Amino acid sequence: MFIGGPPMPKYFPSVTRVIVLSLAAAFAPLSQAQTPSEKLSPIDQQFLQDAGQAGATELTASKLALTHASDRQVREFAQRMIVDHTKLARNLDVLAKRHGITAPPVADTAVIGSLQNLQGAEFDKAYIEKVAVGGHQKAVELFRKESETGNDTALKAAATKALPIISHHYEMAQQLAKAKAAS
Prior knowledge:
By secondary structure, the protein is mostly helical. About 75% of the residues lie in helices and about 0% in strands. The protein is built from six helices and no strands. The chain starts with 13 loop residues before the first helix and ends with a helix. InterPro entries: DUF4142, Ferritin-like. This is Membrane protein. Keywords: Signal. It comes from Caballeronia zhejiangensis.
């Protein structure tokens, strides 16, 4: 038995044991790298805070849209935002935790408060304006700025990777706004 490693079942071939233990040893430094290693610059800290709030606002508002919106296209857009922004939020949470930031992001209470009591067409209009179009316009600028001027390489890479998705959301939101204005 290997001291310090997990007990291996007797049916594991010895070569497999060596591979498993080698991999465990190789990845041990990576798990230690998950601890806060370096302080983020103010630019990167602000990005994490703003991106977290934008994502939390998008998720909360889109969940409201599933029950408050009257338009099928608005509900479909909201469902897509929930799926995509949940993935993005998970990625940002991992990066934040690497730097010791463990508090969950909080949605913009002004935006959510302005939507909570609306129903039907009123909700649709406000959601499209404030969240779909307005929120994504701000998010595109936020992620573009981090991808260009951020100091943390992992955050910069995450922003660069997310930017085309958020830009596409913004384009979808603009199309949705035009379609609803025409009807």
